[in-house]
Specification:
This protein is of the alpha/beta class. It has one domain: Rossmann fold (3-Layer(aba) Sandwich), CATH 3.40.50.960. The protein is built from three helices and three strands.
Length: 109
């Protein structure tokens, strides 16, 4: 897990209330529980309302965010997942495709 760095931007100061969707793939429960606790803690400290949405795996995160963006009233999104390298190409496919999906969402706005 990442620790404190000199590049820490601090907490945002929202002029209006915001609602954030935390989209998480809890395949590795111990890791995802820690990720979720950290995300919730930071959002709570920033005064942001949040809702957690669970998906099966990391590949589903971009699709879930896209659906939430189109169908709900979220102001932003947090994507949480963990992919562990094994002996097959599965890791490479999941990491590349989920990262590409998130990048496309960012480019689309």
């Amino acid at each position: 897990m990442a620790g404190h760095s000199d590049n820490d931007l601090g907490l945002p100061d929202f002029a209006d209330p915001v609602k954030i969707a935390i989209v998480i793939a809890p395949y590795y429960k111990a890791i995802s529980d820690a990720q979720l606790a950290s995300a919730r803690g930071i959002l709570d400290a920033a005064g942001a309302a949040h809702e957690t949405i669970e998906v099966t795996g990391s590949l589903e995160i971009p699709t879930a965010i896209n659906l939430c963006h189109r169908l709900s009233n979220f102001d932003g999104f947090v994507a949480l997942g963990c992919v562990i390298r094994g002996r097959t190409s599965h890791y490479d496919v999941v990491v590349e495709q989920s990262a590409n999906g998130l990048m496309l969402l960012g480019l689309q706005g």
